[in-house]
């Protein structure tokens, strides 16, 4: 069971890049790394998923070092609307239920 | 296309009453998850279904909580004899498969308040 550790909160300013690192020291060979975003009063939504190296989509980038013991979600040029809680999940295609836990997430506050 | 829907969106009930929360997943999604989120907290796993079966019920807080799924579609989470500590947002998610490689699609949640 891959346990994840993230910072509780981060502050940033509009236009800056925000990097959130998630530690998952006991990640298994077949585990994927997935990030979700949750706005107040809404359910979480998928942002990005990766296995190794770097993944980029229209919203974010995900950097995964060779040892895969951590991953960094990068949000370029944030705006006020990026204020949300960001969750890191680690698990393989068979990990479900309590083997795939969201944890407390990182609360990101973007200031004007 | 339609996303995951949940009903009711808000429910206020008196302590000791039973409540039923409903989740309609995305059509074709075989996996369905229930989570609880207390105010300002992270998501707490309750139970998940693969088809109509629940391989993992380990997250249910007590025997007052139960859930079922029928027709590999709609799911109902039932809380009997509600307590004030049951007050939370209950979130449902569905995915094509049960596992970390599959994206979970969340509904808007049901906000339960027990008075």
What profile does the largest beta sheet of chain A have? Answer: 5 strands, mixed
Shape of chain A: globular
Name of the top-level CATH class of chain A: Mainly Beta
The CATH first-level class of chain B comes to: Mainly Beta
Structural write-up:
- The complex is a heterodimer of chains A (112) and B (115).
- Chain A is mostly beta strands and 112 residues long.
- Chain A has a single domain (9-111), classed as Immunoglobulin-like (Sandwich).
- Helices cover 0% and strands 46% of the residues of chain A.
- Chain A contains no helices and nine strands.
- In chain A, the strands form two sheets. A five-stranded mixed sheet of chain A has the order 1-9-8-3-4, with no helix packed on it. Chain A has a four-stranded antiparallel sheet with strand order 2-7-6-5, with no helix packed on it.
- In chain A, strand 6 and strand 7 form a beta hairpin.
- Chain A is globular, with a radius of gyration of 13 Å.
- With 115 residues, chain B is mainly beta.
- Chain B has a single domain, classed as Immunoglobulins (Immunoglobulin-like).
- Chain B has no helices and eleven strands.
- Chain B has strands spanning 5-7, 10-13, 19-24, 31-37, 44-50, 53-56, 65-69, 75-79, 88-95, 105-106, 110-114.
- In chain B, a hairpin with a 2-residue loop joins strand 5 and strand 6.
- The mean pLDDT of chain B is 94.
- The A-B interface holds A 31-32, 34, 36, 41-46, 49, 85, 87, 89-105 and B 4, 31, 33, 35, 41-43, 45, 47-48, 50, 55-56, 58-59, 91, 93, 97-109.
Map the helices and strands:
The complex is a heterodimer of chains A (112) and B (115).
Chain A lengths: L8 E5 L4 E6 L8 E7 L6 E6 L2 E4 L4 E4 L5 E6 L8 E8 L14 E6 L1
Parallel strand pairs in A: 1-9
Antiparallel strand pairs in A: 2-7, 3-4, 3-8, 5-6, 6-7, 8-9
Chain B lengths: L4 E3 L2 E4 L5 E6 L6 E7 L6 E7 L2 E4 L8 E5 L5 E5 L8 E8 L9 E2 L3 E5 L1
Quick recap:
The complex is a heterodimer of chains A (112) and B (115). Chain A has 112 residues and is mainly β.
């Amino acid at each position: 069971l891959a346990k994840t550790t993230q910072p509780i909160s981060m502050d940033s300013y509009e236009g800056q890049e925000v990097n959130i690192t998630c530690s998952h020291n006991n990640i298994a060979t077949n585990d994927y790394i997935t990030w979700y975003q949750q706005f107040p009063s809404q359910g979480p939504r998928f942002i990005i998923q990766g296995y190794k190296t770097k993944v980029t989509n229209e919203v974010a980038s995900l950097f995964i070092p060779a040892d895969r013991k951590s991953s960094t979600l990068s949000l370029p040029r944030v705006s006020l609307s990026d204020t949300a809680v960001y969750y890191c999940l680690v698990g393989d295609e068979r990990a479900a239920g309590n083997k795939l836990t969201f944890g407390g997430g990182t609360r990101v506050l973007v200031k004007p | 296309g339609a996303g995951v829907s949940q009903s009711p969106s808000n429910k206020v009930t008196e302590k000791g009453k039973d409540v039923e929360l409903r989740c309609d997943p995305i059509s074709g999604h075989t996996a369905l998850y229930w989570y609880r989120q207390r105010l300002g907290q992270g998501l707490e796993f309750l139970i998940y279904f693969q088809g109509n079966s629940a391989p993992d019920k380990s997250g249910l807080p007590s025997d007052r909580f139960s859930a079922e799924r029928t027709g590999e579609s709609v799911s109902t989470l039932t809380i009997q004899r509600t307590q004030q500590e049951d007050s939370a947002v209950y979130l449902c998610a569905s995915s094509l498969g049960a596992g970390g490689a599959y994206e979970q699609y969340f509904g808007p949640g049901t906000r339960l308040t027990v008075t």
